[in-house]
Amino acid sequence: MLKVDNISVKYGSFVAIRDINIEVNQGEIVVLLGANGAGKSTTFNTISGLNKPFQGEVIFEGKRIDKLTADRIVKEGIVQCAEGRKLFPAMSVLENLRMGAYVHRRNKGQIKQTMEHVFELFPILEQKKDDPAGSLSGGQQQMVAIGRALMAKPKVMMLDEPSVGLAPLIVEQMFEVIQQINKEGTTIVLAEQNANAALKIATKGYVFENGNVVVEGTSEELFTNDSVRKAYIGA
Ligand code: ATP
Fold first, then answer.
1. Who contacts 11 (Cβ-Cβ below 8 Å, separation ≥6)?
2. How many CB atoms lie within 10 A of CB 167?
3. Which one of 42, 210, 212 would you pick to mutate in the ligand 1 pocket, going by the greatest count of ligand atoms within 8 A of its CB?
4. SS in 3 state form for 170-202?
5. Which one of 54, 59, 76, 230 is most buried, by most CB atoms within 10 A?
6. Strand, helix or coil at 65?
7. Residue to substitute in 33, 41, 207, 212 for testing ligand 1 pocket (most ligand atoms within 8 angstroms of CB)
8. pLDDT digit string, tens, across residues 81-138
9. Is the pTM of the predicted complex or chain greater than 0.95?
10. Ligand 1 atom nearest to CA at 45
């Protein structure tokens, strides 16, 4: 469904990711593991069209997309749920969610239906729908970020460290919702440092180090891989 084919990306003369190959099949949850700065966000930004690779291609549903603009890629069905939430803090929860639906703005009925679904997944957001997004807790802001991504009705949702800074119980709930979204038909690509939780829900994963993929395999393979355990699971 989504294929990252040998891409490399530079910031100025600094090569941030090199020869990256990733394959995501429809219905999967794929996890990208790696420390800060390993290249996960750069990879996401390349898939979503914010970074342009100097080498390689991104193919989505058989079509090359790495030359398309970011808003066009959203229309194709790939949505990125950014790290650090990146909400509009002064705007209400409702307004933030509506922003996610701008690609479908002519379809009012669908927007209403998707919004109802977001409130089913995250009932607390309906209660807080008129509050400024910036007044919500970290976990609730993450829910708004995921809800906003869902409003675009993506085929593929990319989540950049959805668990960062959240309490363990909230992390658990977040991963349950991600699984639920996946079961409902959205393919998920997840960047995480919380390898333990991520590998439990993922089908396969890629381990990033210094801009390279150093290990890849099924979740089970990664879970039992000694170097992965040492670096990311700690047992
Ligand atoms: P994080 O979780 O911290 O975002 P990451 O694995 O997503 O980590 P990237 O953000 O992709 O890693 O960073 C890969 C490398 O590229 C790092 O060395 C980082 O310092 C560098 N980098 C990222 N963005 C830029 C930028 N806009 N300009 C210059 N260098 C950058």
1. none
2. 12
3. 42
4. HHHHHHHHHHHHHHCCCEEEEEECCHHHHHHHC
5. 76
6. coil
7. 41
8. 976 567 889 999 999 999 988 877 778 888 899 999 999 999 999 999 999 999 999 8
9. no
10. 11
